[in-house]
Amino acid sequence: MILINVKFPVRADKVDEWLALAQSYATAVNAEEGCNFFEWSRGLDDPLEFVTIECFKDADAGGAHTRTQHFADFVEKAPDLVSAQPQIMYVDHEQVKGWGPMGEITPR
């Protein structure tokens, strides 16, 4: 199993657009083969921060996810909606794999 947690700081004037994109994306990801669950929630300390929790059966399923068309569509639209580069954390069974910038999405 692989868990992926991403924090997205959303632009204040784009929250409604973000919510629509996030809901569409979550629906698509949850339908994927190998995805155990995917959800969005608001950050606890910042109302403009959104957090994803993704759980895939294994790293291969998570990697396959990044090659889907809805992932490409999300990456294309997301930079217009975020105020800073998202932060991503991968967690495997017993250890944290790493923490750092998510290179695929850079704000425009």
How many helices? The count is: 3
Series of H and E elements: EHEEHHEE
Class by SSE composition: alpha+beta
| Low-pLDDT stretches | 93-98
Measured by DSSP, the beta-strand proportion falls in: 25-35%
Shape: globular
Rg value: 13 Å
Quaternary structure: single chain
- First-to-last CA distance: 33 Å
**Strands, total number:** 5
Which whole number gives the mean pLDDT? 85
| Major sheet size, sense and barrel closure | 5 strands, antiparallel
Estimate percent helicity.
Answer: 25-40%
Structure description:
- Residues 2-91 form the ABM domain.
- Keywords: Monooxygenase, Oxidoreductase.
- This is Antibiotic biosynthesis monooxygenase.
- GO terms for molecular function: monooxygenase activity.
- The protein is of the alpha+beta class and 108 residues long.
- The chain is 30% helix and 33% strand.
- Helix 1 (15-30) runs antiparallel to helix 3.
- It is globular.
- Mean pLDDT is 85; it is low at 93-98.
SSE arrangement:
Blueprint: E1 2-9, H1 15-30, E2 35-42, E3 49-56, H2 59-65, H3 69-77, E4 87-92, E5 96-101
Helix pairs in contact: 1-3
